[in-house]
Every structure is written in structure tokens, then in C-alpha cells.
Amino acid sequence: MASIRENKTKAGTSFTVLYDYEDSNGRRKQKSAGTFLSRREAEGVQLEIDLSKNRSTFIEPNDITVRELFDRWLPIRAKTKRWEASTYSSALNMVEKHILPRIGKKKVQGVNAIHIEALFADLEITRRSGPQTKNVKASDLPFLSSSTISSIYTLLHCAFEAAVKWKLIRESPVQMEKPVRVSPEAKFWTQDQIYSALERIEDPLLHLCVHMSLACTLREGEVSGLRTDRVNLDSGTITVDATMQRVPRKAFDLLPQKEIYVIYPQFAGQSDSVLLLKSPKTKGSNRTNLCTEQLQQEIAERMVAISRNKGVYGDDYRDFGLLICQEDGTPAEPNLVGKWFRLWQRRSGGELPYLKYHELRHSSATLLYDLCRNAKSVQGVTGHASAKMVLDVYGHRHQQQQISLTRQLEATLYSSQSAHKPPDDSYIDVLLDAMKKDPLMQQRVLSALLARSAT
Questions:
Q1: Distance CA 224, CA 332 (A)
Q2: Smaller CB count within 10 Å for the chain: N or C?
Q3: Rg (CA), the chain
Q4: Spatial separation of the C-alpha atoms in residues 369 and 377, rounded to whole Å
């Protein structure tokens, strides 16, 4: 319980409220709740402390810093929310790069709303950094994206809410509204640009990677992790049931082991991370995709090349059963595939719009959506968690279709004012309805479109 100590000095009498608490080491200590000029005011504070202790709402003082809070909270959050290793790595990077340098040394009980708002005001004028910003003038670097700032807010909000729950603080200092996340429009290649890319990529391995991502909407991790025993050339299908990732060792230690299929051996300079093959991003990512005839032929040629490499390297061949690998069988991990694609784009002289490797998947899904205008059918090919996600990402194409339909409506409604009647294109609706009901037909149409690149 709290007590009052009377202090008599030449200046007069004052009253100090004292209370006992237990520090983090279990030792009993005493702390002042303040000194007051009147006993009545001191008694009011004493009563408030005693009531809060009786109700178990009293917050005992502690020296826990923001860094220590995140050290405790982040691994717990990752486990309870079953984060992907990539999600944990991203969160860890944002904490270490943007939060801890600014408020990491502050005591949790000393952080207030002003500190939080000042942090976000600083983030708004912070420019990006990382491997992809090398050789770029500081003044030309883009600012942090709204998505990154919004994610940092979520981390801070959840961490301080946990601090309240753990009775480290009475209330969270994160009182400001969440910054608005502005989703950038997905970039993609048009149909003609896809043809051009497939015609111009000369490296056989990169061509196969790009071709699979465009024809089967594969992510880079799914491309790198595709095993030869998941390819059925007789039925013309590939089964996507694994993804390759390189994860920091901190994140690896948190991953459920049952989700990991293969842990690849360490190579030079990679002791701080682990390359592994694991279950896909979501259950919906497990899927079997039909290959176009051109892709089937290219995969068959790749199988022959692998057999040839095994003969050349003999016992030195690293056989992990991967379709996409280096000549000696060493895994071609996702970052490497992305690097090959970036270098090819630089050498091509910018004749095609620059894309990140993942945006090949956007290009493929956009083309499929244009073909069938059915998000559920596209979802079956792409492995998105829901059809709504397909619409959210590729719905911009729907707006263009609406514009086209509006123009047709204008021509129909006001035909009496026009000298030309719009052509009858009802057969298009019949064809689209048939494609919506038959995913195999969608694949065949895509095969026919891609075949144009060879003519």
C-alpha cells in the first residue's frame, strides 16, 4: 500500500506519496508518486494508488526499453499468428531499420504520443535504401512507400497494445490514425510485349523460367522450387506444391518444421541465412496447372539438358531433383532468378517496360482475366487465396472493359442518330461463357496466343 511522508523545511511543509513495487529481478523497491503542498492532495493520490493495486490495474515502474519490448514481442507474434518466414523477415527489417534507431533506447513507459507522431513525420521524408538502390543518387531515391509506413504503424500499434496487456504501461502511446495505404497499380506486360519477350530471351534457362511464370502464373519461389517429379509430360501438367525461400536464421528458428521439405546445404558466405524448400504460401497455392504445348516442349528439352549435365559432372553433380538449377545441380534460388531477369532487361535496352520478376505473374493473370473475365477461373490457375484477391489486383482491367461496353451501349441506344450500326458481336458472349465453364479451353486459348510468338 502507499504511504505519505511529511517533509518539514524552512519553506514550509510538503507531503510525498511513496509506494512499494517489485522490480524485474523480484526485489522490493520504493518509489515516489510525487510531492504535494497539501495533505489532502497527497491522500487523493495515495487512495488512487491503493485502489488500482486492489483492482490489479496498478502499473509498476520498469526500465524496459522499446528494443527489449520488440525482442520479446516479435517472436511471440510470429508464432501465434503463424507468420511466413518472409513476413517475419520483413517485420524484423522494418523494426531494426526504422523503429529502433528512432525510439529503441527509450523506456516503454517514457514513450508518449508526441514521440510516435514525430517518428511518422520523419518516416514521411525518409528515402528507401537497400541493394536495389545502389549507384542511385540520394536525391533520386524514392521515399518510403505508403505500404511500408502503414506496416510500421501496425507493428508499433500491436507491440504497444501487447505492452498494455502485459501491464508494462497503462495505455498505448500509439493514438494517431493509421496512415492510409495507397496500393500501387500492378504493372504488367501487354499481350504483344509478352510475345516480344519470349522471342528475345536467348538464355535457355531464363527463357524457361519466364515462360513458366507467364504460361502458368508461377511465383519466383515456385519456379525455383519446381521438382522434375512434379512434371508430367504425358498429361502436360505441372504440380505446384512447394516454394523455395532463403530466410534469415532468426526466422528459420521460428518456422514449424513440418512445413519444411528440404534444407539445402550451406554455401560460402551464407551462414546467417538458410535456403529451404517449404510448403506454399497458402493452401490455395497447391495446384496443378496445364502447360501449353510450347512450354511442354521446352520443359522436355530442359530434362534432356539436365541428363547431359549429370553425365558431364558425374559424382560432382548436386542432384536435388530440381528443374531449374545451375549446371552442377546447385539450386537457382529465387533471388538469382530475379537477378538474371533484371540483367536481361538492362541488356535489352529498355525496349520493354521494366518489370520486377513477380510482375510476370501479374502479366499472366491479367491476360487470363482478359480472356475469360472470370475471377474464379483465374484463381484456379494462379493459386490466389480467393477470387476477391484476383479482382483487387487485376480489377483495373475490368474498368477498361466497362469503358468499351459503355461505348457499345452508346452506339446501340443512340443508333438512330448514327449512320452506322454497331456490328453484331453476340458470338463473343457465347465464347466467353464457354470459356468460363471450361478452364481447359482457357489454357488452350492461351496456348494459341503464345504460339503467335513462334510465327
A1: 6
A2: C
A3: 30
A4: 8
The pTM of this model reads 0.68
Q: Are 28 and 18 in contact (CB under 8 A)?
A: no
Establish whether domains 66-165 and 195-357 are of one fold.
Answer: no
What per-residue confidence (pLDDT) applies to 292? 87
Structure confidence by residue, pLDDT tens digits, 370-381:
665 544 544 444
Give the domain ranges of the chain.
Answer: 3-54, 66-165, 195-357, 362-454
3-state secondary structure the chain: CCEEEEEEECCEEEEEEEEEEECCCCCEEEEEEEEECCHHHHHHHHHHHHHHHHCCCCCCCCCCEHHHHHHHHHHHHHHHCCCCHHHHHHHHHHHHHHHHHHHCCCEHHHCCHHHHHHHHHHHCCCECCCHHHCCCCHHHCCECCHHHHHHHHHHHHHHHHHHHHCCCCCCCCCCCCCCCCCCCCCCCCCHHHHHHHHHHCCCHHHHHHHHHHHHHCCCHHHHHCCEHHHEECCCCEEEECCEEEEEEHHHHCCCCHHHEEEECCCCCCCCCEEEEEECCCCHHHCEEEECCHHHHHHHHHHHHHHHHHHHHHHHHCCCCCECCECCCCCECCHHHHHHHHHHHHHHCCCCCCCCCCHHHHHHHHHHHHHHHCCHHHHHHHHCCCCHHHHHHHHHHHHHHHHHHHHHHHHHHHCHHHCCCCCCCCHHHHHHHHHHHHCHHHHHHHHHHHHHHHHC
Per the CB < 8 A criterion, the answer to whether 125 and 106 are in contact is no
- Which residues sit opposite 248 in a β-bridge? 273
Q: Specify the pairing of strand 273-278 against strand 243-248.
A: antiparallel
pLDDT over 90 for what percent of the chain? 44
Q: How far apart are CA 90 and CA 148, in angstroms?
A: 10
What is the CATH number that goes with domain 66-165?
1.10.150
pLDDT of 385: 46
Average pLDDT over residues 160-186: 89
- Cβ(322)–Cβ(329) below 8 Å: yes
Cell numbers standing for residue 86: 518472409
